[in-house]
Design a protein that fits this description.
By secondary structure, the protein is mostly helical. The protein is built from 4 helices and no strands.
């Protein structure tokens, strides 16, 4: 199987065999998992050939932005006194107060 069409035909055969009772559901599930992995590999290969550079070198901008945000949050948390951090995490309990 080298193309998405090959994988689609393979999945169709799995579905037909499963419905006909020639294939156990557990085995069909395993084969579908493998087919999904093959589809991802085919897709990554197509993307890599389009970009003509290794995918390892390309990181999504959203991942980098997320990491910067996490680092910034950690640095801010380290700079705050513990009392301020507790106030952010645990809201004050007003249930004990009785309204006049």
């Amino acid at each position: 199987m080298h193309t998405a069409a090959d994988v689609c035909a393979f999945l169709s055969r799995i579905a037909a065999d499963l419905c006909a009772g020639r294939l156990e559901p557990k085995r069909a599930n395993a084969l579908c998992y493998i087919a999904t992995s093959l589809l991802k590999a085919i897709d990554l290969s197509a993307q890599q050939s389009k970009t003509s550079r290794p995918l390892r070198e390309s990181h999504p901008a959203s991942f980098e932005a997320m990491m910067r945000k996490i680092r910034r949050s950690l640095q801010e948390a380290e700079a705050k006194p513990i009392g301020e951090l507790e106030a952010e995490i645990v809201p004050p309990n007003n249930a004990d107060e009785v309204a006049p």
